[in-house]
Design a protein that fits this description.
Layout: H1 3-13, H2 18-25, H3 29-36, H4 44-54, H5 58-62, H6 66-76
Helix pairs in contact: 2-3
């Protein structure tokens, strides 16, 4: 998964529009769009703000496999309904 795909997925999961995220990070909505389409990448300070906002580690955000692995682990965890 690319960084742009992760940003899009995390933003959507957080139920934020591009405009909402742009406002919180003090960038333009167009910047968010470019990040999500891999036309550009956020500066380091914006990545840090994004990881804090979404409550995800920098490793999970920028490494190619960490978010995929986290989601797979969460999907495999038993839910409260399935516990005895």
């Amino acid at each position: 998964m690319t960084l742009g795909e992760k940003i899009l997925k995390l933003r959507s999961t957080a139920k934020m529009s591009q405009g909402d995220l742009a406002e919180k990070l003090n960038v333009s909505r167009q910047s968010i769009s470019k990040w999500e389409t891999n036309q550009s990448v956020p500066e380091l300070d914006k990545l840090i703000q994004l990881s804090d906002l979404i409550q995800i580690s920098m490793d999970e955000l920028v490494r190619s496999d960490d978010l995929d692995r986290r989601e797979k682990e969460e999907a495999e965890m038993p839910t409260a309904a399935s516990l005895p």
